[in-house]
Amino acid sequence: MNRCGVFDSGIGGLSVASELLKSKLFDEIIYFGDTARVPYGNKNESTIIRYSLEALEFLKNFDIDFLVVACNSASSVAIDELRREAGFPVVGVIEAGVKALDAAKTSNILLTGTKRTIQSNKYQNMLLDLGYQNIISVATPLFVPLVEEGITEGKIVDEVFELYFGDIDKSSIDYVILGCTHYPFLAKSFKKHFPNAKLIHSGQAIVELLKNEYGLKEKSDTSIKLFASDNPEELRSKAKEWLNL
C-alpha cells in the first residue's frame, strides 16, 4: 500500500489533504494536526524543528512512503532536518508553491504567511533566485485563528484584510501566494480584495510537484485517517465539512 503522511500545525493542512484526496495519488493518507500547539508561526526555530520531528516519528508508525509538510512555518525551518531523519521523500509546501508560479518576471507578487514564514525569507529568496523582483511580503498571523474558528468571510475578515493590506494597490497585484495552508479557506475573501490576482494554492502545487517530479499516477481511490494532538473531534468535524467525508 502506498501511504502519504500529511503534517500540519493544525487543521489548515486539510486544504492540502483535500487536493491529495482528489488527485488519488496514494492509497491512503495519514493526516496529523498538532492542534495542541497551533500555531507554529509565532514560535522560535528550534521549537518548530522539535515539533516537526515529533510529528515525523508519529507518522512513521504507519509505514508511510512520503511525507508532505503541509505547514509553511515547518517547511521554512525544519525541512532539511526532516529529510535527514525520514528515510523517504519529504515534500514541503514552500518549494511546491514557488515551482507552481508560472508568471512573467515583472509580475507583482504578494506573499502572505505567518511571521515565521515571512521572516525566514525562504519564499523570497527562492523567488529572487528565479528572477522575480516585484515581491511584497506581508505577515498575516491573524488569518490562522480566524480559519480555526471557521470565520472565513464577512465584516471581521474584511477588517483584518484592510489592516494588513490597506496600503497596497490591490488592483495591481497579479499573484497572491497563500503562504499558509490555512489561507485557501479564505480564498473567496482574497478574490474579493484582490480581484485581478491569481491565487497560488499549496495543495494544488503539492499535487503537481508529486506528479511531475515523482511520477505518481492516479489510483482507483484514496482513503484518509485523521489524528490530532488535541481535540481530534474538532479536526474530524472540520474534515467532514471541508473534505465532504
Walk me through this protein's architecture.
- By secondary structure, the chain is α/β, with parallel strands linked by helices.
- The protein has twelve helices and nine strands.
- The chain has helices at residues 14-23, 45-60, 72-77, 79-86, 93-99, 115-120, 122-129, 143-148, 155-165, 187-193, 202-214, 232-243; strands at 3-8, 28-33, 66-69, 90-92, 109-113, 135-139, 175-179, 198-200, 223-228.
- The strands form two sheets. Strands 4-3-1-2-9 form a five-stranded parallel sheet, with helices on both faces.
- Helix 10 (187-193) links the parallel strand 7 and strand 8 (198-200).
- Helix 1 (14-23) packs across helix 11 and helix 1 packs across helix 12 (232-243).
- It is globular, with a radius of gyration of 17 Å.
- The chain starts with a strand and ends with a helix.
